[in-house]
């Protein structure tokens, strides 16, 4: 058996599997123009045949025209989403125009799939967002004037209000092709069918009569139903489907004592890692539900299990007193999957405005499982006479929780009465009453945790060769929790004399599993014995014997496959500390106590840039270097100024799609598909109010073909999109690319190359 163990160790570390992750659909080709007429239902849209693609698929006109704001809130939205611009499909970005009547407002809302970056074109706006329960529902506000820029972080409730005597206009970029919008008043009090009075009365700690009055408003839907379907569904802002950062090593155990602030946590040295970093006990113990809502949560997040860092998953145990409830709330960074261990729960979630705030509910009994999609408002209530218990898995190491009552009526400082009275269409006295309640924060931990229920299960994981194939093992008892990092080979063995059971949560809708014995020794057709013998460094006879043993011994050793994406927020905000000398992917985070509204703000985007250069264009950037609050939020904004006949030369953005709208002048724009698509040029002439999309990574350009100056605003789907100007990169690199290489590449004489290199290359 010792010899087999040796072979086991060698085999396990010789077999590797590469994992690539994706979260929202990412482009797998140059373009995937949405076929809006297709009856095939997918996540997003199926692609048009590339032969049928036209420039109009990337184009929209009329963005300079104001929308009708004659409604109760004095606000309207014009969308440039995938339904209006099919070319946005898979590109992860969109644009909206916001029109405000004097004193009109965009009521408190969230966006389940996007961060928002806004610039004011006309007027003065009072804007703000509310941090989550964990950060005391702090309200961050700012007054914005023409040319100012502000960011609304992913997943947070936010609003904009025109505080001037004249109409106001703003343009917002959003980090999704279809951001969605959840207007709080509509979703909580105007769902169809309505959320139970009992649930809302307990959640908001008020009499049912107050709830009845609020629900009777029906949130303007009867009066302005058409407007809200078209208008409010385009209110785009935070609450993104945010995926956790992917692991870049086997494990990155959180150093909870480090003073360095990053998105998530810095890693402990692997030498200091122990099995306890992946372990938590007492998950079988009930928590105290003696509070106003009769509910409590036990967390198994990264703060409790440091080994969860970068692994994109967590667990929570939910305890309900008889008739207790987990009030309406959202998780800005996670989907939740729940199973009932004891009792009977009435649960539900509310779809966004676009889906008519439909309420989807279910009564769950012991053993039932239910899913709450990321970003949607949801609740759970114990409708039985006895306590209830549930376990939930969440798709983030730190999902966050935003309890609606706390966030809207209990923010610090409070949201203005005027804003809330108009948003909820009630008298200010009702708002005063609601704000005066004592808001329960016992649900602030609601994020995650699942308890395993084994009698005695031994769980082990093996680190990669790079980390000396270290084996980390632990014996688990009832109520214990353990974590298996993504892709590492691991196994479970019941070491007791009685049957055992465990509950697992996995950070993928379809994790898959590779059983090593089956995959290596049981493939069909089989892998050559010669190949395996050399891989394991044994002779062929021994290989055959080992194969027979492995079928019995290694059957349970598995590796789960999951997907991941670029870094996403692991907390409400991670404002870049631009002065820190610590180098990470992006920037380390400022201490949240030092964060101000100024970290989400930039001014001067109404000022023209200097175009007196060889190409006659200039770009004013508003990325993470100008607005530190953009860190981890995946979006930025630029203003592009063009002199008459000026141009933004052919270039690419290695990390972003660009969506552009023309404010003044006439532009000729285009992008070039890749070699596989015959380097097809797709071009269009744009006028004031037109919108156009440049897919990520493709060479593109803009040229002012008019006799007057031209101006455009563009949103980009990265906090730091990067730019590669083709002429500069090819002919102005340092040190220069060899003449021989370029001469052959361009099929010209070397003298031509020397001439091109001698030019002074301009970065617009």
TrEMBL record:
Secretion signal span: 1-22
Entry binding sites for Mn(2+): 651, 653, 658, 700
Record-listed oxalate binding positions: 648, 653, 658
InterPro entries: Cupin_1, Germin, Germin_Mn-BS, RmlC-like_jellyroll, RmlC_Cupin_sf
Gene Ontology CC: one annotated term: apoplast
Single annotated GO MF: manganese ion binding
Cellular compartment(s): Secreted, Extracellular space, Apoplast
One Pfam family per UniProt: Cupin_1
Protein name stated in the entry: Putative germin-like protein 2-1
Organism per entry: Cinnamomum micranthum f. kanehirae
């Amino acid at each position: 058996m010792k010899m087999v163990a040796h072979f086991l160790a060698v085999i396990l570390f010789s077999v590797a599997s590469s994992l690539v992750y994706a979260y929202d659909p990412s482009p797998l080709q140059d373009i995937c123009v949405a076929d809006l007429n297709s009856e095939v239902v997918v996540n997003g849209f199926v692609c048009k045949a590339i032969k049928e693609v036209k420039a109009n698929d990337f184009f929209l006109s009329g963005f300079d025209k104001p929308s009708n704001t004659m409604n109760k809130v004095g606000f309207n939205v014009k969308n440039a989403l995938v339904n209006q611009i099919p070319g946005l499909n898979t590109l992860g970005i969109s644009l909206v125009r916001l029109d405000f009547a004097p004193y009109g407002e965009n009521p408190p809302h969230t966006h389940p799939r996007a961060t928002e970056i806004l610039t004011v074109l006309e007027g003065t706006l009072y804007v703000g967002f509310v941090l989550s329960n964990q950060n005391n529902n702090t309200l961050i506000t700012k007054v914005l004037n023409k040319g100012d820029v502000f960011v609304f972080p992913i997943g947070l409730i936010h609003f904009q209000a025109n505080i001037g005597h004249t109409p106001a206009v703003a343009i917002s970029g959003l980090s999704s092709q279809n951001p969605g919008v959840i207007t709080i008043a509509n979703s909580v009090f105007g769902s169809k069918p309505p959320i139970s009075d009992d649930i809302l009365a307990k959640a908001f700690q008020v009499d049912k009569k107050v709830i009845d009055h609020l629900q009777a408003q029906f949130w303007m839907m009867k009066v302005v139903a058409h407007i809200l379907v078209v208008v409010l569904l385009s209110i785009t802002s935070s609450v993104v489907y945010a995926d956790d950062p992917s692991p870049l090593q086997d494990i990155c155990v959180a150093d909870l004592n480090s003073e360095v602030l990053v998105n998530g946590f810095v890693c402990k040295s692997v030498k200091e890692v122990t099995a306890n970093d992946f372990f938590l006990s007492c998950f079988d113990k009930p928590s105290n539900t003696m509070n106003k809502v009769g509910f409590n949560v036990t967390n198994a997040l990264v703060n409790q299990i440091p080994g969860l860092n970068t692994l994109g998953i967590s667990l929570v145990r939910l305890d309900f007193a008889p008739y207790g409830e987990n009030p309406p709330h959202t998780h800005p960074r996670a989907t939740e999957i729940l199973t009932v261990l004891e009792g009977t729960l009435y649960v539900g979630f509310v779809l966004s405005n676009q889906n008519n705030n439909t309420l989807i509910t279910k009564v769950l009994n012991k053993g039932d499982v239910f899913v709450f999609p990321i970003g949607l408002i949801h609740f759970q209530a114990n409708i039985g006479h006895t306590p209830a218990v549930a376990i939930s898995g969440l798709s983030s190491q730190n999902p966050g929780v935003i309890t609606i009552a706390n966030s809207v009526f209990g923010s610090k400082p409070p949201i203005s009465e005027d804003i809330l009275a108009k948003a909820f269409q009630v008298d200010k006295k009702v708002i005063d009453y609601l704000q005066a309640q004592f808001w329960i924060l016992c649900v602030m931990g609601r994020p995650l945790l699942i308890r395993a229920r084994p009698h005695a299960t031994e769980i082990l994981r093996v680190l990669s060769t790079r980390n000396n194939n270290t084996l980390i093992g632990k014996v688990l008892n009832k109520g214990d929790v353990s974590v298996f990092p993504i892709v590492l080979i691991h196994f479970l063995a019941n070491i007791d004399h009685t049957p055992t059971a465990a509950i697992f949560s996995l950070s993928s809708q379809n994790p898959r599993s590779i059983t090593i014995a089956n995959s290596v020794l049981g493939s069909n057709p089989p892998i050559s014995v010669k190949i395996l013998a050399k891989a394991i460094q044994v002779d062929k006879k021994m290989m055959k014997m080992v194969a027979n043993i492995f079928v019995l011994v290694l059957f349970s050793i598995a590796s789960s496959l999951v997907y991941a994406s670029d870094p996403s927020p692991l907390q409400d905000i991670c404002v870049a500390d631009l002065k820190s000398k610590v180098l990470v992917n992006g920037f380390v985070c400022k201490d949240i106590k030092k964060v101000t509204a100024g970290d989400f703000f930039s001014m001067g985007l109404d000022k023209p840039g200097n175009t007196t250069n060889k190409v006659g264009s200039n770009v004013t950037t508003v990325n993470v270097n100008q607005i530190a609050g953009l860190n981890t939020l995946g979006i930025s904004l630029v203003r592009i100024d063009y002199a008459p006949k000026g141009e933004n030369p052919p270039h690419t953005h290695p990390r972003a799609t660009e969506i552009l709208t023309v404010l003044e002048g006439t532009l000729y724009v285009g992008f070039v598909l890749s070699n596989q698509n015959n380097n097809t040029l797709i071009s269009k002439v744009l006028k004031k109010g037109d919108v156009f999309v440049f897919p990520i990574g493709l060479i593109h350009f803009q040229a002012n073909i008019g006799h007057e100056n031209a101006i455009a605003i563009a949103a980009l789907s990265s906090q730091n999109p990067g730019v590669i100007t083709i002429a500069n990169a090819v002919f102005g690199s340092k040190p220069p690319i060899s003449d021989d290489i370029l001469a052959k590449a361009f099929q010209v004489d070397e003298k031509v190359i020397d001439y091109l290199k001698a030019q002074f290359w301009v970065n617009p």
